[in-house]
Amino acid sequence: MNFADPIDEAAEREQQLIEVALANRPAATMVYTGECHWCNEPIDKGHFCSDECRSDHERMVWAEKQRRLQ
Fold first, then answer.
1. String of b and e for 36-47 (b: at least 16 CB within 10 Å)?
2. Looking at the domain assignment, is residue 50 inside a domain?
3. CA 14 centroid distance within chain
């Protein structure tokens, strides 16, 4: 990289860092299926049919992560 202006070089390096960060981000874990991910009720949008299903799912995910730590 030969840049006459250090600002152009900094901008290029910043863009490279952004591209690397985007390439290495974790993949989305949930995909819209038309059903609640917890109770399988039909839904029009989102991933859960209610706040209760969402919080139950979050508790289950948290518990699984805790089991893996031990």
1. bbbeeeebeeeb
2. yes
3. 22
Domain boundaries, position 46: 6-69
H/E element holding 17?
helix 6-23
Nearest-angstrom CA–CA distance, 3 and 14: 14
Whether the full predicted model's pTM is greater than 0.90, yes or no, is no
Tally of domains in the chain: 1
Does residue 1 belong to any structural domain of this protein? Answer: no
Tokens of 35: 């059903």
pLDDT, tens digit (0-9, with 9 covering 90-100), for 4-57: 889 999 999 999 999 999 999 887 778 889 999 999 999 999 999 999 999 999
